[in-house]
């Protein structure tokens, strides 16, 4: 097992620590699979329920005092919203599972988690951004940060499809394509 040293400047402070390539690889692969399952399970459950719609949640379950309450109510009943939620979750889950376009999937997955988090707010900034069981942090924020990490690292290259296109000359000569891969 090899170890490496990570040196980074975080918030103006130099940080340095050693880590094991071996165990970090397993951890990242595990995180990618777990996040894939979270999205796949949610998308499949919605797809298999013939009458599923986000309308009931958007119109009735958003807490009073939510700073975006008017937006959520205006989206209730939109077939486009229902389609984006179901198919977004399925595609994000599948791409994370096979390790294809992981950075793109991580971005859209984190965006969806932030939207879900915002729908659970019970007040604004002056109220401390309260949610059902505390302040600010919920599982949606945790998922969004995990997805950010998977995308930042490029976890699709670990036993995933993204490793192959990144080695191709077309991608190497067009480095901007790596924004979507990884």
Automatic annotation (TrEMBL):
GO cellular component: membrane
Pfam families reported for this sequence: DoxX (PF07681)
Subcellular location: Membrane
Transmembrane recorded as keyword: yes
Entry keywords, A to Z: Membrane, Transmembrane, Transmembrane helix
Main location: membrane
Database matches in InterPro entries: DoxX
Designated name of the protein: Thiosulfate dehydrogenase [quinone] large subunit
Organism expressing this protein natively: Halorientalis regularis
């Amino acid at each position: 097992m090899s170890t490496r040293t990570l040196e980074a400047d975080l918030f103006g402070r130099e940080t340095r620590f050693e880590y094991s390539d071996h165990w970090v690889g397993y951890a990242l692969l595990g995180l990618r699979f777990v996040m894939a399952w979270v999205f796949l399970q949610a998308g499949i459950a919605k797809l298999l329920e013939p009458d599923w719609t986000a309308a009931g949640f958007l119109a009735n379950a958003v807490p009073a005092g939510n700073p975006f309450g008017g937006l959520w109510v205006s989206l209730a009943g939109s077939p486009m919203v229902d389609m984006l939620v179901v198919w977004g979750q399925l595609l994000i889950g599948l791409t994370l599972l096979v390790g294809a376009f992981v950075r793109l999937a991580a971005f859209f997955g984190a965006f969806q988690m932030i939207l879900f988090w915002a729908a659970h707010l019970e007040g604004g900034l002056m109220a401390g951004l309260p949610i059902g069981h505390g302040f600010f942090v919920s599982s949606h924020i945790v998922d969004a940060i995990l997805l950010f990490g998977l995308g930042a690292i490029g976890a699709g290259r670990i036993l995933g499809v993204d490793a192959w296109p990144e080695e191709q000359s077309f991608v190497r000569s067009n480095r901007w394509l790596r924004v979507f891969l990884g």
